[in-house]
């Protein structure tokens, strides 16, 4: 794990300006071919890609009620501890998400004028859940529950099947606990295309959310605009700000938990104490060989692991804001005050015991978070992602006539004379009642 | 103006499923070339494209304080009525947008646990304002004010210059009234690229908003992910639901005001009264020749104008929800009750006097609205577009240890053992205070 000072770090960063979206065109040919095939040939193309990429020779993309219930019951009775843990996590997620649900409003700035905002759920949402060797029941809970809390009618999951055509029963169980209305055995760009444009089996949805590999991310970018998408997720990151009141073993364990996600994950420790930096580094080296996913972790830490020494807290906060980390742990003294100064971060974990996996699995706030500096402009996934707003405007005859000239003046200035006419016709020929 | 019944309309629509984003690849080669050139060569490329596309041989992209102030003063003294109208509109917009500003929250589900959501403004925003022959001061007000109300530090405008290198003084005046912090003479895909990646003159922004032509829309799609964007705007639409309590001349004038935007604008009247449909049609024909932008209007109405006759109110509302119109006018009896049944619409205008131009210019709610059916999943532009959320999580030592086993159980089930370890290390080696 590299230790470097603030200036050195900042110099390296500004030399590699981010233009990620422009750099990923290499996948476009393949992704576009898949999207077009699913658009044109529906289920048939979707099944063919599933055979090609997932090696699963299935004949139906839908998970039957029976298959779903069997999986649910097998986990409920066979793994009661896991079942209970998922149920408890779901309850926390539901509780937090309910707090984020917005209500519309109405107000009357003067008699005869009523303005408002109406907030309504989306009709149909698709949640992409990665599959293959991994199993992510937590992703199911985190992405489905906010949609259910929002009041979305249909919340369907797509996830790639295993070669024998089955799905992980834990994922299916989480889907039921979360309240999903359907599950489909399909992954990759073909899943995104099927959700965006609909097939014989899959409903056309209004929004696609959830993490996926590079193909999924790129396909989401292509269909964006025809459907909504949550965000284009990049590799995961953690930034932990700590001082010598925090056991270095805690900091090291948290950084390494991030590193196990993938070789391109980023783990950064920020501190103002050079001696402490060395202690964290030693702990990192001590713990790596003890961990199951040692190889991935070592590669990730070597490539992207950094301990950055800042002159003081002010500089550390400036650094954190420039990184805009997905996960930020404020672990040391004064953490509560530091929260106020943080401008950009996906989720902020406060104190030495708020370890990132607590948020990943259990606490309630979403673990689907903006990566790669996009916390500068994006939010955690939430109920607000599954609702949209409509403005309402009601003017009486009298009030419209009061302001008719003002409106006509602006319309004329823009050269939109038919706009002016729509107001003028009411002014000059006002025979209807309000 | 075509009159048709509900069934005929629905049949036509389902035969042309929307896959707009996939169909606009024809522009990509040119758009990508422009984006790459601006990324690589900055101002020099931006100035070259400005000369090529806007015929303006300028040497600086920035509008100077002097140029800006001169424009402002010339309108303030030379066109006092327009100046007053823009100021009044700005005040209404500000008042409405303030109502939509969200606050964060904190709650404690049990002692030792504190969860919350922190809401902060973006740092820098770019607003694209179309230029050329047209002048859109209302777009400036509508797009800049929500960002200013959100608390964004830098709100900059880009708009293409006229061939003599100048900008419309009315646009510059609106920019000052709205509270923009800078204006740049650049349009098209080159403006989007400059805002997304920064140049010597233009700041790299966090989000790009505002309407533009096909190049602008496509460039926004390409840079999306590296920066946030508002939406990919399509042609404008109106849908007016009316009955014989509403003068047909009002309905006609409103439909025609929409039609004057462009040949591809869509104007739809919905009614349950076949005789009334004929009256509206007659009014349309009567009014068209009286309007300045007759040619555009006639083409738009011929191509996309429709009066659709429904069996009853229920069917009409179903139709409206399937269209998810950008602008919806509920003009007839029972309008207030109909609002409750509308699921998808950008802005809803209630009653015979709430004509669309009232909302376009003056009432306060935003006129930047989701087009082309995207009201199914998108909202009007608002303060919420210029703020983002961070979750906060604070667990005490005791509470983390209470739930340690639950968290470890889920982490192990996902095979993420380093995640489990980060919790375990605190359980087994809990020597720090909370």
Automatic annotation (TrEMBL), chains A, B:
* A Gene Ontology biological process term: L-histidine biosynthetic process
Return any one Pfam family short name: Histidinol_dh
Superkingdom of origin organism: Bacteria
Q: Which cofactor does it need?
A: Zn(2+)
Gene Ontology MF, one: NAD binding
Q: What Enzyme Commission number(s) apply to this enzyme?
A: 1.1.1.23
Q: Which PROSITE patterns match?
A: HISOL_DEHYDROGENASE (PS00611)
UniProt-annotated binding residues for substrate: 236, 258, 261, 327, 360, 414, 419
- The entry's keywords: Amino-acid biosynthesis, Histidine biosynthesis, Metal-binding, NAD, Oxidoreductase, Zinc
InterPro entries associated with the record: Ald_DH/histidinol_DH (IPR016161), Histidinol_DH_CS (IPR001692), Histidinol_DH_monofunct (IPR022695), Hstdl_DH (IPR012131)
GO CC annotations? cytosol
Q: Which Gene3D superfamilies match?
A: 1.20.5.1300, Nitrogenase molybdenum iron protein domain
Pathway-wise, it operates in: Amino-acid biosynthesis; L-histidine biosynthesis; L-histidine from 5-phospho-alpha-D-ribose 1-diphosphate: step 9/9
Q: Where on this chain does Zn(2+) bind?
A: 258, 261, 360, 419
Q: Which family is this protein grouped under?
A: Belongs to the histidinol dehydrogenase family.
- Protein function: Catalyzes the sequential NAD-dependent oxidations of L-histidinol to L-histidinaldehyde and then to L-histidine.
| HAMAP family noted in UniProt | HisD (MF_01024)
Query: What protein name does the entry list?
Result: Histidinol dehydrogenase
Source organism of the structure: Oceanobacillus sojae
- State which gene encodes it: hisD_1
